[in-house]
UniProtKB/TrEMBL annotation:
InterPro entries: PPIase_dom_sf, PPIase_PpiC, PPIase_PpiC_CS, PrsA_foldase, Trigger_fact/SurA_dom_sf. This is Parvulin-like PPIase. It comes from the Bacteria. Its EC number is 5.2.1.8. It catalyses: [protein]-peptidylproline (omega=180) = [protein]-peptidylproline (omega=0). It is an enzyme of class 5 (isomerase). It comes from Methylobacterium trifolii. The gene is cbf2. Residues 152-242 form the PpiC domain.
Amino acid sequence: MPKTLPLWRVSALALALAVPSLAAAQTPTPAAPAVAPAAPVSPDAVVATVNGSPVTAGDLAVASEDPALSLPGVDEAQKKALLVDYMVDLKVGAQAAEAAKVADTPDFKRKLAYFRDKLLLDEYLEREAKKAATPEAAREVYEQTAKIMKPEEEAHARHILVDNEAEAKKIAGRIKGGEDFAKVAAETSKDPGSKAEGGDLGWFSKERMVKEFADAAFKMQPGQVSDPIKTQFGWHVIKLEEKRTKPTPTFEELKEQIDQHLIRKAQQDLILKLRGEAKVERFDAAGKPVAAPAPDEPKKP
């Protein structure tokens, strides 16, 4: 589906949005009366007809899922009116295309077959994959993952970054002499990302930092200030605030990722199963049979 609205859609929606806005600018808005919750609407409820062809509430629901028709910031009543207008235009255009025999062209039939297959596959994969993302399956994946997760050490540190060793030594001396690290960092550090925070880097694992910095920080004790440390970025003075073993993420923290993993795996397994059960024949440009690529061999376009 297109990510942007075609010009005719943009014009229609812009006009529909602009007219109420102009009226609202000239007329005071009365306080909205209390409204009872709307009763559920049947998908078969007719909201409009176009030359006798119905537009239903179910049609509007399908259209509202089209990313190209996203209407953020529009209230539900206005959104419904805009979608009805769009569906009327769609029906009018489709009826004109039918009359012009567009649907009878080979090119259209190929496109229709392609998008029908694609929509069928998407719906089928979504339906089947949801069966795999059960609470029990998610919990099992979490427990298996938690067993093999190694405890990870993290450090919470501050640093001051300068250009040369002499300046770093001078700064280290000031701090070891009793000056406040955060205050000196705000005055002297060349690191724009942490300077305003008094050099605070927050919590980090060893792998997140360059080797020289990480080696020094993780050897220190809380409260300790380092001698100058050289890295590819310059010279650092480090103060270690705290150390901890990173806690294992909870099931609730990982559930969304686990569900996505289960869905993707179920979809992949299903496609591989269907492909393995199907009789597939491939042909070259001359119509001669060709061998299928080996499983570990990338397919050529």
